Amino acid sequence: MASTSDIKKGLCIIYNNDTYKVIEFLHVKPGKGPAFVRTKLKSLTTGKVLDNTFSAGHKIEEVRVETRKYQFLYNEGTTYHFMNTDDYSQIQLQKDFLDAPDLMKEGEVVTVIVRAEDEMPLSVEMPASVVLEVTHTEPGVKGNTATNATKPATVETGAEVNVPLFINEGDKIKIETEKGTYLERVKE
């Protein structure tokens, strides 16, 4: 059994007879009254996100998990196919399990979190950032850079990202996977 002091991002717990992953957490110590932990939990079975508050010292049931590296092969509709990079076994996961499926290109290596007891995949974690090529964007207007103006751009996976005006089609850009935001232009 773990307590609220063990809560961290990515922790998998059993809550209300379901398996949840902690997406966000915040330890709060008000000036008056007991401390508590405010969390945002994502159900690993339904994909629903709920806000929950645990009082300080509350006991939580932790799920023992292992992480494995898998390579993304392809997707058929909402079913995504992955291959284990160690033993070449393949698994299929539904789109709900993925954090940012629209930023994942074929060949991308991701981390799959697996429940230790029954080898059941719980969720897929992307790398912190990915490099993708811009396939479509409107040309930027010269001299319109006084403000931090952005424009929409479509990348090779089909996702749409707001980018600075100087980005053109064919440029490779680095995207933060957690927020889906532009980080920088990548030079070859």
Written account of the structure:
By secondary structure, the protein is an all-beta fold. The chain has three domains: 61 residues, Roll (SH3 type barrels), CATH 2.30.30; 61 residues, OB fold (Dihydrolipoamide Acetyltransferase, E2P); 58 residues, OB fold (Dihydrolipoamide Acetyltransferase, E2P). It contains no helices and 16 strands. The strands form three sheets. Strands 1-6-2-3-4-5 form a six-stranded antiparallel beta sheet, with no helix packed on it. It is flat, with a radius of gyration of 20 Å.
Write the layout of secondary structure elements.
Blueprint: E1 2-3, E2 12-15, E3 18-28, E4 36-43, E5 49-55, E6 59-62, E7 65-76, E8 79-84, E9 90-94, E10 109-115, E11 121-125, E12 129-137, E13 150-155, E14 160-164, E15 172-176, E16 181-186
Antiparallel strand pairs: 1-6, 2-3, 2-6, 3-4, 4-5, 7-8, 7-10, 8-9, 10-11, 12-13, 12-15, 13-14, 15-16
Could you give a short description of this structure?
The protein is an all-beta fold.
Q: Which CATH class of the largest domain is shown?
A: Mainly Beta
Give Rg in angstroms.
20 Å
Tell me the distance between the termini. 49 Å
Give the total of beta strands. Answer: 16
Please tell me what the overall shape is: flat
Q: Calculate the mean pLDDT score and round it.
A: 85
**SSE order:** EEEEEEEEEEEEEEEE
Q: Quickly give the structural class.
A: mainly beta
The total number of structural domains is 3
Percent helix among the residues? under 10%
Strand order, main sheet: write it out: 1-6-2-3-4-5
Q: Low-confidence runs (pLDDT<50, min 5 residues)?
A: none
Strand content: over 45%
| CATH topology call of the largest domain | SH3 type barrels
